[in-house]
Amino acid sequence: MAEGRENTNTGADSAADVVDEAGVQLVYRPQPGDTLVGLRVRQRIKRWGLVLRGVFLALWVGQWLVGTISRGSADVVSSVLFLFVVLLVGGYPRLQAAQVQRIVGWQGEYRTVVTSAGITTSSDHSTLIQKWSVLQGYRETRGHFVLLSRDPNIMCLEVLPKHGLSTAGDVDRLRALLDRYSTRV
Question: pLDDT 10s per residue in the chain (185 long)?
Fold first, then answer.
């Protein structure tokens, strides 16, 4: 039971109380796709990065067009550099997800328990305990729950893949916990 609450149930516990006591456990190996989903959710919420990438790309397109028009033909070096920038800007989230995977992937299997006290994630090499006050909220996608940190730049996020849950009912139990102690963003 959550601290400070009085149990008024007689006999059978409510579903919310059962969720509180038992918590929900996920067991999974982080995948690059999981990280990519988390980064895309972060981008949708914090749009400033998308705006900057769009402006950067527009400036490169403008520079390439002005150079091509002024010369009367496309310069090979300028065109190759332009294509490189387009690929870099478009592929940046995948590059970032691959970098994060190199950081967390070697730690093996993750065991995450979500309870009324917060989120505890353990691997063979580390344990991270987060209270609910650290989070500004969460967003649910088709295959994940993405928990976002409270800091202004959302530098930390926790991706809970639904494939890490042991039963289909755990999805509803986890959603109930998240709705109870956090907010959807």
Answer: 344 434 444 344 444 444 445 799 999 999 999 999 999 999 888 877 778 878 888 888 888 888 888 888 888 888 888 888 888 888 888 888 899 888 888 899 999 999 999 999 999 899 999 999 999 999 999 999 999 999 888 888 999 999 999 998 999 999 999 999 999 99
**Direct distance between the N- and C-terminal alpha carbons of the chain, in angstroms, rounded to an integer:** 26
Instruction: Classify residue 37 by burial, with Cβ atoms within 10 Å: 0-12, 13-18, 19+.
Output: buried
Rounded Cα–Cα distance for residues 17 and 165 (Å): 19
And the tokens for 65?
């067009």
Other Cβ atoms within 10 Å of 160 Cβ, number: 24
Of 159, 38, 175, 167, nearest in space to 96 by CA? 38
CA distances (Å), origin 134, targets 97, 99, 174:
23, 24, 18
Please give the Cα distance from 78 to 170 (Å, whole number): 53
Read off the tokens for 95. 């590059």
Residue 135 DSSP SS3? strand
